[in-house]
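cache lookup: miss for this entity combination. No prior model stored, computing from scratch. Input as submitted by user K.M.:
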Amino acid sequence: MTRIETARKGIITDEVKEVAVAECLSPETVSSDIANGYSVISRNTKRAITPLGIGRGMRTKINANIGTSKDHISIDEELEKLRLLVKYGSDAVMDLSTGGPIKELRRTLTEHSPVSIGTVPIYEAAVKAVEKHGSVLKMTVDELFETIESHAEEGVDFVTVHSGLTMGAVNHLKSQGRILDIVSRGGSIMLEWMIINNKENPLFEHYDRLIKICRKYDMTLSLGDGMRPGCVADATDRAQVEELIILGKLQKIALEAGIQAIIEGPGHVPLPQVEMNIKLQKSLCNGAPFYVLGPLVTDCGMGYDHISAAIGGAIAGAAGADFLCYVTPSEHVRLPNADDVVEGVIASKIAAHAADISKGIPSAVERDKKMARYRKALDWEGQISMSFNPEKVRAMRAHMPPSQKEVCSMCADFCAIKTVERALHGK
Ligand code: SF4
């Protein structure tokens, strides 16, 4: 039985209890939300990691993407990125490798990752097709599904599949026109394959094969948004919404088959449309967990796109998005290095935390109260312990002159906290 089937029978598993404790929810609530598709637990049956709950009433989770490209291949570097993203609190990691020994890297990451791991199998299927046939366009349907199955067998916890990118959505794209057409790498591979071969998307047409693979390992489907807008001017157009409607139908089919699914979302979205996008997804996709890629609220943040994404992520999370995919400062520029990964994770953690305060998640509200109390007490170690990057803050405080050990150099002798303590309490 899959998790959904077990939950439908009213059986509360140890895994559900573990998630319930972590999320300060009752096991019955978690179980019922899994049965109804409002929440998922991302963990392949082959893995022994802490189960990751994503969904209704839960803390907003974040994911960090790592992986090689053809021009930049180092397993050691990717392992270091994994170590750092875990250290700074990412709840999940996606291996998006497209270069070098992809399978070996995935196995190594899966073996070393204490957090949930996701992949986009079409990347590997495309690389293999080029190696075997000389072109991704010659990739066979069987080869695509064999690759997906091999990811599941190796313990991948969730896979992105662009099943909603149908010929219908492509026709919307063609007829309305966009500035940036498609920016999803997996979506673009699928689109070219479909157009040149004049065939429907196999991930849509043979969706039953995906369901069958997921059943075997209780792997979660992350229904990808191949039509996600790549610039704010393209946001919330017919192609994006057409795909979202299809994703909602596919989530329902998965749920009926006992398979967990989350929905991926945009992309680049202007501020006034962020909340509307979340409401639209929740409504069209039956309340399924929403995994947003940013969203970036401006196209011009190059070098600082982690900030554009954190602004969008905080608003999206507050509006009900459940899972934020980080964006690093190197987005749109180059493959992220280890420092970019750290910056991306921290920006995304701040966005998720801000969203959780808005959602009233008790642990988030309490953390800020603790920080405020430490701040009032001028307890620097306490404040540092509540920060998202204690090492950085400690280093910033390291060279304070002795006269400023108690306060800081912002106001020094005019420290407002000290002044008011003295005035009100004579301290
Ligand atoms: S010196 Fe100013 S900024 Fe620094 S702790 Fe006091 S009030 Fe805060």
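stored under new cache key. Strands lie at 39-42, 52-55, 61-66, 92-95, 116-119, 158-161, 220-223, 261-265, 290-293, 323-325.
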